[in-house]
């Protein structure tokens, strides 16, 4: 019997002037200045996070996610890069990217499938985003649908 126990680690995180609260598992990603990462997060390779964005505790940011500046990723938000469309777990080469603009708020426990979300969007707690979002506003539910367009929210 073989038992393997690995420690979480913070390895090859590029960038400067960021804050990480341990324990976390982060590797081969880029954090811009003033980024905050709360405890119990995983941020995988090829992730890029923009200035002043906050990643709250227990979030999972998978490979190929790009998050703009001044975003808020709520506790336990989950990103997806493998749709498992072919009935199996895909390899790294088939994983899909997700892009969030600036000033995007992702509510607690939301799930973001591989999509693009424009700037100035709120995703409600527990929502599941399955399609690209191209218009600023608040989106809720599973699948997430627009609740209102927040003109006042736009910067
Ligand atoms: C999406 C959100 C911003 C909407 O807030 P709001 O504008 O005050 O909305 P209301 O509470 O007035 O709700 C309006 C409608 O949307 C529905 N709704 C609100 N949030 C929802 C959500 N997350 N998922 C599904 N439906 C939601 C309400 O049930 C209500 O439905 P109705 O019109 O059929 O009665 C807020 O509910 C939310 O989810 N915020 C995220 C908070 C969060 O995760 N914070 C993290 C740090 S603690």
Alpha-beta classification: mainly beta
Q: What is the residue-averaged pLDDT? A: 95
Main sheet: strand order = 3-6-9-12-15-18-20-21
H/E element sequence = EEEEEEEEEEEEEEEEEEEEE
**Radius of gyration, rounded?**
16 Å
Number of helical segments with 4 or more residues:
0
Query: What best-fitting shape do the alpha-carbon axes yield?
Result: globular
CATH class: Mainly Beta
| CATH level 3 topology | UDP N-Acetylglucosamine Acyltransferase, domain 1
Bound molecules: coenzyme A
Q: Uncertain regions: pLDDT < 50 for 5+ in a row?
A: none
Strand content is 25-35%
Overall structural domain count? 1
Under the CATH scheme, the architecture is: 3 Solenoid
Number of strands: 21
Question: Biggest sheet, open or closed, and with what strands and sense?
Answer: 8 strands, mixed
CATH superfamily: Hexapeptide repeat proteins
Distance between the termini: 58 Å
Helix content: under 10%
Word description of this protein:
The chain is an all-beta fold and 155 residues long. Helices cover 0% and strands 33% of the residues. It has a single domain (10-81, 94-148), classed as UDP N-Acetylglucosamine Acyltransferase, domain 1 (3 Solenoid). The protein is globular and about 55 Å long. The mean pLDDT is 95.
